[in-house]
Amino acid sequence: MNFAVLQFPASNCDQDAIHVLKNVLGHSARLVWHKDQSLGAVDGVIVPGGFSYGDYLRTGAIARFSPIMQAVQQFAANGGLVLGICNGFQILCEAGLLPGALIRNRSLQFRCENVFLKPGSSHTPFTRSIPEGALLRIPIAHGEGCFYADDATLDQIEREDRVLFRYVDAQGNRSEESNPNGSVRNIAGICNTARNVGGMMPHPERASEPILGMADGRWIFESILAELAERQKSRAA
Amino acid sequence: MTEPAITPELIQKHGLTPDEFARIETILGRRPNYTELGIFSVMWSEHCSYKNTRPLLKGFPTKSEKILVGAGEENAGIIDIGDGLAIAFKIESHNHPSAVEPFQGAATGVGGIIRDIFTMGARPICALNSLRFGELTSPEVRRLFTGVVSGIAHYGNCFGIPTLAGEVYFDKSYEGNPLVNAFCLGVLRHEQIARGAAKGIGNPVFYVGPATGRDGLAGAAFASQDLTEESAEGQRGAVQVGDPFMEKLVMEACLELLATGVVAGIQDMGAAGLTCSTCETAARAGTGIEIELTKVPQRAPNMTSYEIMLSESQERMLIIVNKGHEAAVQKIFDKWDLPWAEIGFVTDTGRMIVRNHGEVVVDIPAKKLTDEAPLYTRDSREPAYLAAVRGFTLAGVPVTKNPGADLQALLAWPSIASKNWVYRQYDYMVRNGTVVCPGSDAAVLRIKQDAVPVLPDGTTGPAFEDKFIALTVDCNATYVYLDPYEGSKLAVAEAARNLACSGAVPLGTTDNLNFANPHNPELFYQLKRSVEGLAEGCRAFNAPVTGGNVSLYNQNPSGPIDPTPTVAMVGIIDDPKHITTQWFKDEGDVVILLGNIVDAADPLLGLGGSAYLQSLHKLKTGTPPRCDLPTEVRLHEGLRGMIRQGWIKSAHDCSEGGLAVAIAESCISQQTGRSTPRLIGAEVEIPGDQRLDALLFGESQARIVISVNPSDVDGTLAFARSAGIPANRLGTVGGARLTIRAAGTTLATETNVLHDAWWNAIARAME
């Protein structure tokens, strides 16, 4: 498959996404500069972590206006797969591609640690290959990762089975203690109604190689690849 | 605009002595004007000129077959790591700014050291830090601690560099004068080494990065005087404001420009800003430089020549480009939306000429400014307190009655307790290279292809097998206070031991000498003896000093800081299979101590200067443990040999808190996820007929706690014997409790209780 990884001036997880897609999973991936107008011919888009334009105003608030985001809007409107990770999730929310917002962690401090995630829905392109009942151990690294949306929006997200992941403890239980940033209903990631745009605060690209001590993040990339393969097959048929 | 007249008061205010001023007049052949006075003042400050320390620093070992750029040559030293790759690293202090404005002071400390690394042509790939504060019971200390940590986090996280490791100590001597030492390491290919030299007569000189403002005026001079309440208040404007986003852009643009091959010389504008970068690049190349200040981007209106030359506005670089290639600068810096300006050119006059609206405002021989700073050999006298230290015996110290409670108290002592409250605020994983995260003896980082700066052909060069480096920063300043020479050797030995425990062979060292006022002979004695100790230690471990930083005048009205020669050491691990961590792995594994249980030749049995005496007996005295370098070297080499055999499942250095704390940490320090430690107990017996507290908490050196599979015990013990390393089988890993028997006493504590005391102590102190 062929992936575009967006590169804003202060993206800093862009190389990590490329590394996993290319060197770990053996697919093609390239950086696309924020001033570019077009994504080129790609099967999927990753909006990576980092600080986009410094994020002094509000995370992702400026990035949504960048030229490349217009292309991403179009790509998503046509059903293309887009995954936003960390700052990428923030940008997708700011751009209106995903509902809700990410606000400052309740601790008011940046947090970098491994968390446990329980998949919400298995019926999304981002979670479909995760083994039934599996808990994922994946790191977070953010200062503004507290997911917030009003109750009506949250009810709708849950009704439509659009929660990708929830923060849980090592036993898989949802608790206050297991929630690292104060996200409502322990939500760590969601997708849109059309299920082709996803966003998550944890970093699957940092947890895709045994040498780094964690490989659960691979399931998310494997899910995307399975989805793309199926789409290709159905197009060919 | 009229400039102030040069009066004796003004000269004194600039930190220059009458002799130094006379020297300036000789160099110039006339009286300096106000701007020139400012320039000499910053360039001849200790921070820039090392005028009090240069003769001492000559004693450091600075060469090995792997050193490509040595200490003092450039902005950072560079070491070969094989396959045509190299690493550049350095540590630098930002103590005084952090005392005044902790958040920005610490943030710009990180920014400054990152610039020193990419100035060399390297891509910065990790950061470390070494911090010292007063005791956490003080609300002011908690404010400084909070500010410094969040400042480091802010800068490093946004820039996108993993902050991998560090150390934090709390001691009364740092109250009001915290220490903030920041380290950065970058990677590059040998042919990518850039030089801070203004080469090529007629070449244009570019200024890149954000505009110059009045912030950070003469910070270098500020850092070179005692900190008083008055100086702190008056110098608030000397603290710069950091912008990590800007730095990230400047770094990417500079690496892109370097890849084009058009750069003749490059230097960051750190301490003393435009002044230092212009005169140093000219001096290094043996050329001259001429700049026009009206061309310098300016943030504030009506800035004077003095202000522009001495500003320490952050994230700025000076770049000399081969003539005819000016368009390359424009193209790349426009791509990154960065300000740039051509401000001058290289000359053959040897002079640093600064014009403002065409009029010459500075005319100084560049080399004399950088190389002819006065050098002082200060008087040195053994401090009076050392006699009392040497006279101390254990006679008046009652043997502990409650070792279980003592162990918990030591684990919760902030200098020993887990520093997770600190490092959880740092992004220590970005760039997908962190193999061993904070919390083990040394961090281990993978260097992969995408860490290398881009070459002129747009690639990162030929493929190579991932490299693995280990990093640590260490200094028990209490030991140094109690014996500056031995204590400094101990700091080096501990750093080398931490690397050995992770499976690494030392490559090199960068040191940060944090000391008090050198004019006081007793304080200068500390500095002198400490440098001698560091030099001997670095020689023993073949870990030459590749550069570093000197920070003097670290004292406030209540007294000097403990002498703190921070040692950051980098090592290499040839095979990822040899990467070793400190925590016990499996039930049934056998716990072995490499090294003597107690140094029997030490009359204080390793308790002098110990955490035990400090925290539980409120005694900060006694001769610290002895450091026998050949013994240490034998131990480290032996451990690496055992690791290569595949026997070592865990290895943990015995340091503060002694054997009991080292074993407890081996049981409780593995953290798999949020609120999820992996705890594993152990049952051990510490043989020996010494006093109980010495057996448990004595800090005799050259000791490492290892665990091995039962089937490898015989091999390990035989290997140790043939290598001349004492080895004692202490017990077995397993269960939910740590049980220690020593001197006829047994202590047994649930591992979750020990973990809670250790893991949450700092968070509790901060509540």
Mean pLDDT of chain B: 95
The rough form of chain B would be described as globular
Counting structural domains of chain A, the number is 1
Major sheet strand order of chain B: 8-10-7-11-9-12-13
Q: Given the helix and strand composition of chain A, which structural class is it? A: alpha/beta
- The overall pLDDT average of chain A reads 96
The CATH C-level class name of one domain in chain B: Alpha Beta
Helix percent of chain A reads 10-25%
Largest sheet of chain B: 7 strands, mixed
Task: Describe the overall structure.
The complex is a heterodimer of chains A (237) and B (767). Chain A is globular and about 45 Å long. Chain A is an alpha/beta fold and 237 residues long. In chain A, the strands form 2 sheets. Chain A has a 9-stranded mixed beta sheet with strand order 2-1-3-4-11-10-9-6-7, sandwiched between helices. A two-stranded antiparallel ribbon of chain A has the order 5-8. The longest helix of chain A has 19 residues, at 218-236. Helices cover 24% and strands 24% of the residues of chain A. Chain B has 767 residues and is of the alpha+beta class. In chain B, strand 24 (670-673) and strand 25 (676-678) form a beta hairpin. In chain B, helix 17 packs parallel to helix 27 and helix 23 packs antiparallel against helix 26 (713-723). The chains are: A alpha/beta (237), B alpha+beta (767). At the A-B interface, helix 1, strand 6 and strand 7 of A face helix 8, helix 11 and strand 24 of B.
Which characteristics define this entry?
heterodimer; A: 237 residues; alpha/beta; nine-stranded mixed β-sheet; two-stranded antiparallel sheet; 24% strand; B: 767 residues; Phosphoribosyl-aminoimidazole Synthetase, Chain A, domain 2; seven-stranded mixed β-sheet; globular
